[in-house]
Each structure stands twice: as C-alpha cells, then as structure tokens.
Amino acid sequence: MPINIPQELPAREILEKENIFVMDVGRARSQDIRPLNILILNLMPEKEKTEAQLLRLLGNTPLQVNVSFLHTATHESKNVSKSHLEQFYTTFEEVKEKRIDGMIITGAPIELMEFEEVNYWEELTEIMDWAKTNVTSLLHICWGAQAALYHHFDIGKFKLPKKCSGIYSHTVNEPTVKLLRGFDDMFYAPHSRYTDVEKAKIEAHEDLLLLASSDEAGAFIIMSKDERHVMITGHLEYEAHTLAEEYARDLAKSLDIDMPKNYFPDNNPTKKPVNKWRSHAHLLFSNWLNYYVYQETPFEWD
User: Fold this and answer.
1) Does 78 count as an annotated binding residue?
2) Domain for residue 288, yes or no?
3) What are the Cα distances from residue 154, in Å, to 149, 150, 208, 253?
4) 192 is in an annotated binding site
5) 237 is known as an active-site residue
6) Which of 48, 51, 111, 237 is catalytic?
7) Residues 6+ away with beta carbon under 8 Å from 16
C-alpha cells in the first residue's frame, strides 16, 4: 500500500530505507482513485517510534492511504518535541466534523492506573463515542484495547502478579473470520503489559468474538460482532528489538522485572532477538484495511 505522509515526517526516511512504498502528495493527487483516510490516535510516549512501526504495516497492500496523526489536547507529551506535534499532529477539535474510514488507537504505558484516573480519559471517551458514527472501523492496541473493552463493553482489567512481557504462541479460535485469513493455526506475537482482561468475560459477552488467544498471555485478538471494533491486547507492530529496549529501560529504573519470555536466544540478553511475528503483523493490518475498512467504507460519505 502506498502511504501518503508528509515529506518532512522523520519516519519517512526510515521507511524508504526499508523499501516501503511511500507516496508524495503530487503523485497521490494524480491517481484517479479514492484513498482511504486513516487516523492514528498516538498515545505512546515515544511517538516517532510508534509512527514508524504503524506506517510500516499500513504500507504493504495495493490500497492508497492518507494517514493523519492525532494527539490528546488534555495531556502534554514529554517525550516528543512541541514542534513535532505542531507540524504532524492534530487535535480532536480539528477533526470532529470529518468522517474517517479507519482509526487506530494505540496503547499507552498507564495500565496500572484506573481508567478514570488518566488525565485524558474524558477526552478519549469523547473520541471513542464520536467514532461510533464517524469512523467505519477501529483498531485498538494493548491499553487502547483495554480502554475500548471497558468503555464499549463494560469489561474491566485486572493487575497481573508480574509483567507479561515476551513472545507467546497463540491459537486461532475463529479460522473463518476474514480478519484472520491466511493466518497459521498457531502464531507468535509480542506482549508487554502489567494488566489483563478476563478471557471468560470476553467469551461470554454477546457482542464479542475471541478470535485468537494464548495459554500463557490470555486473550489476544478480540472483535465486536458488528465487525467495527478490533482489539489486540499485544503489540504485533513491535520491531525485533523493542522488547529489549523496554527491558533495558526497566532495569535502569531498578524495577522488579523478569527477562522477556521466549525472546532472547538461549535466554541470553546479549544475543540479538529474532522476529517471529512480522508476517502475521503485516497480514492482520492488511486484512483489517481490506475487509473492514476498504470493503465497508462508502466512496462518498455524504
């Protein structure tokens, strides 16, 4: 998928070096097709890293996509420059009159806080309510998935005894669902969180489907039966080295943290981790864009 992003966005150089098809505005305007409009609410602190991770996955199908970034107005980001936000991001006030084809709500390292304690929770719930009538399909990641389950489906989270961090094996529970077309019966995916949601509550909910799960890491891919919400409790967008960086960061903070499971070769943190989830990450994003955004969104919203 050629993704249409600003020429100056730092992630652009990273993606071009990886041979990801990035389209400039002039070429995009010359094509007689209607591009998809994808809005990313980026709640992660290191926004530039998350931008590259998500754009990498959005750039791998034949569809043309216009990507916009959204940040919360009620929270001041400390790990990204103000100029970066002013140049590449917008706020909800600036987009709430628009119709959006697809939206991604990322995770955030705040899962130990109660939802209502988060200083932008009211703004986030307003955005999620707006999306019910203004967005065709939503993809929620990690804490973003927990927030969606809580707000839309009244399923809360609980604290884990230890941080769930590592690469875990997952089983496909609903092989005929379009989102999982092409998936192996078992596949790997990264997790990195301190909280979880009860698998039994998801399975018992009349409006939800548990598409894939792990014996160790619990529920993984959840979808609403109206197919408008996809919730992923892990991080398929992570790069091979992301968990290693998080582990080093936690050790530097003297946190009581275990080594990520099934991650470092021979459990040796000096050895380079192997990416065992990249193909399924691309497949999930491609399936979501095709079957739940492109095939469902109207050519003319009006």
Assistant:
1) no
2) yes
3) 6, 5, 12, 34
4) yes
5) yes
6) 237
7) 22
- Residue among 220, 255, 214, 211 at smallest CA distance from 109: 255
Would 174 be classed as within a structural domain? no
Domain count, the chain: 1
Phi and psi (nearest 5°) for 170? -125, 150
What are the CA-CA distances from residue 115 to residues 43, 124, 152 (Å)? 14, 10, 13
CATH number at residue 284: 3.40.50.880
Helices (H), ranges, 199-254: 199-204, 242-252
Quickly state the pLDDT bin for 273 (edges 50, 70, 90): very high
Looking up tokens 């399936």 gives 287
Is the residue at 178 inside a domain?
Answer: no
235 annotated active-site: yes
pLDDT of residue 186: 97
Please report, for residues 15, 52, 64, 107, 302, the alpha-carbon distance to residue 9 in angstroms, rounded to integers and kept in the order given: 11, 10, 18, 21, 31
Q: Which helix (H) or strand (E) holds 211?
A: strand 208-214
179 in any annotated domain: no
pLDDT in tens, 38-59: 999 999 999 999 999 999 999 8
The answer, yes or no, to whether residue 160 has pLDDT greater than 70, is: yes
Boundaries of domain holding 8: 3-156+195-238+277-294
Point out the catalytic residue in the list 48, 71, 142, 282.
142
Q: pLDDT by residue (tens digit) across 91-141?
A: 999 999 999 999 999 999 999 999 999 999 999 999 999 999 999 999 999
Residues contacting 240, CB < 8 A, separation 6+: 272, 273, 274, 275
From the candidates 140, 229, 235, 280, which is the catalytic residue?
235
- For the whole model, what pTM was predicted? 0.88
- Residue 10: predicted pLDDT: 75
Q: Three-state SS for 222? A: strand
Q: Is 164 a catalytic residue?
A: no
The answer on whether 249 is annotated among ligand-binding residues is: yes
